[in-house]
Amino acid sequence: MGTPRVIHPLFVRITHWINAVAILVMILSGWAIYNASPIFDFSFPPALTLGGGFIGALRLHFAAMWLLAANAILMIGYGLASGRYRAKLLPIRIRDIIDDGRAALTGRLSHVDLSQYNGVQKAMYAAVLVAIVGAIITGLALWKPVQFQFLARLLGDFDTVRVLHFLAMSGIALFILVHVTMALLVPRSLLAILRGRP
Ligand code: HEM
């Protein structure tokens, strides 16, 4: 049989985990920033926030955003330029999403071949990559509304951009919930994203 071949190259694994850490810091510090001026009728439990208050959270958010953005450029740049995303994430078919989603919910989805993503995975990975880019673009418009006026104008006013930024975060948070649950349910996949092969 020999050693199973590498499914996730080292570069993919390193950028995946840097992204995971950066996203977690961004979300948890973002929740503290949100709490200082909630958009909706609720705030996040302080225990689930990072930064120890508004100013600390803002500093942390602005520090981690460089890590997130630089890593996203490398991770997504590599995925696009190497053809990895084209090979692994496309085509995305509604039929596959429905069939594989149904199979997953009834415990009939095969996880034997980790080198191929199922229909739900393809759609979710592609969507979360778009959400990350969306969070960064709306974040730029919130961070420097004057310098990035064209962005803010393109997207609406400041408050609309805040809501869009919040929506991007919500999509990413929802993704993480499902994604981490699946990784724990299929530990071989976790091994693969840690050491390259199951
Ligand atoms: C925090 C804990 C996380 C765990 C335990 C985890 C686990 C995994 C695992 C096991 C895989 C491989 C899936 C497979 O081979 O079937 C994977 C891939 C992937 N994960 Fe995560 N992940 C985490 C965080 C994140 C976050 C925060 C994001 C994005 C917001 C993310 C986005 C992705 C993407 C896009 C892939 C596909 C990578 C590729 O094939 O190029 N992950 N993750």
TrEMBL record:
Predominant localisation class: membrane
Claim: Membrane is one of the keywords in the record: yes
Bilayer-spanning residue ranges: 12-34, 54-81, 123-143, 163-186
UniProt keyword Iron present: yes
Subcellular compartments: Cell membrane
Stretches assigned to the Cytochrome b561 bacterial/Ni-hydrogenase domain: 8-188
Alphabetical UniProt keywords: Cell membrane, Electron transport, Heme, Iron, Membrane, Metal-binding, Transmembrane, Transmembrane helix, Transport
Membrane topology: Multi-pass membrane protein
PANTHER family named among the record's database cross-references: CYTOCHROME YDHU-RELATED (PTHR30485:SF1), NI/FE-HYDROGENASE 1 B-TYPE CYTOCHROME SUBUNIT (PTHR30485)
Coiled coil feature spans: none
Protein name listed in UniProt: Thiosulfate reductase cytochrome b subunit
UniProt similarity note: Belongs to the HupC/HyaC/HydC family.
